[in-house]
Write a structure and sequence with these properties.
Elements lengths: L28 E4 L8 E2 L4 H5 L11 H14 L6 E4 L11 H11 L5 E6 L6 H10 L3 E5 L5 H7 E2 L3 H18 L4 E8 L7 H11 L3 E6 L8 H11 L13 E4 L4 E3 L10 E4 L5 H5 L2 H12 L6 H5 L31 H5 L37
Parallel strand pairs: 1-3, 1-9, 3-4, 4-5, 5-7, 7-8
Antiparallel strand pairs: 2-6, 9-10, 10-11
Length: about 375
Amino acid sequence: MIMPTSQSESEAPAPYDFDGPSTAAFPTRVMVEPTEVCDLACIHCPHPHFKRSPQYHGLALDPELNAKLVDEVRLQGQGCLQQLRYGGNGEPLTHPRLFDMLDYASQQAGSGVTITLATNGRLLTPEHTERLLASRIQIVDISLDAFSPATYARIRVGGDLNVTRQNVLHLIEHARAAGATLQIVVSYVEQILNHLETADFEAFWHDAGADHIVVRRLQSCSGAKRELARQRRHLNAQQPRRPCLYPWQSIVLNAIGHLAFCPTDWARRSVLADYRTTTIHDLWQGTHYQSLRRAHLDDDYADHPFCGQCPDWVATNWPHLSPTHTALPLPTNSRPACLPTAQRNDLPPAPSPLCPCPAGHRRSDPESRPTGGSLSFTHTTS
């Protein structure tokens, strides 16, 4: 395996290697994809195209594989794994046994592991709210992407903001009444259709009692959104390429039961092995990841063309480096008022080593902080 470069005490740390929160023994972040099925067709998401592709099978993860993963985390990942996130290329709440899997993870993963559920909130019924609170996971991240019902309907095709917003408000109310420690995150991918609503979105959810409000940058999903990928490659040409963080941080268990190295792969081109026949521990320390890390360090992707074509490496933030990300442009005629224009589009996001997506955040990310810790937001909404 690739180990940190040996150095004397006077030498600077290797710029890209296992350092800080990442470890050579086990990933610091594991994503579990409960299902390929989604109940919406969001315009910034590759799922509508993915659903028509040969890679799509409408599968749901076998709960036995989830149990195997959680057991491995408890036995091999203690002291290394920081985040176990349920999300990915589908809507987790469509899985009929999701809450059984979350219960097992919460009870068996061990201390020090933050368990997160990412959902669009459409199916977060009162019954599901009760199961979610009973599971005692630490974070739920609900993607909303709009303030007005009209904008929501254009971005999150097939959804109704009046329904989803009420689901989230019900969750907040019941979590507070129960004294639950669950951190409730509402998130928002800023894009052309919604950028005039960002300030209203933030103000509304601040007043409603959301624990965290995360505004994410629009990205190409590892090249799956082709026009965004073209724009990103044009911007990337202005700076030298550096390694992506994921080979030193993350692994994904997809709904098929395969292990993959990229959490934004919609083409199934980052699959490394069938989890039924291997372990995360062995794969993380084996030749697949060695070769992948070496390709990123050498900037030679001849044997890893999926990484070679991906333009989103620039948005994965190494914790020891200043981020260099430049946002894809939004229209300049009218900007949201809660941050200056320069902060919205010219400055990079704050580093977030545990972020599940390459987008970067312009708000503090709760998953990069201890559960229950306070956050310092980029702005105030008081």
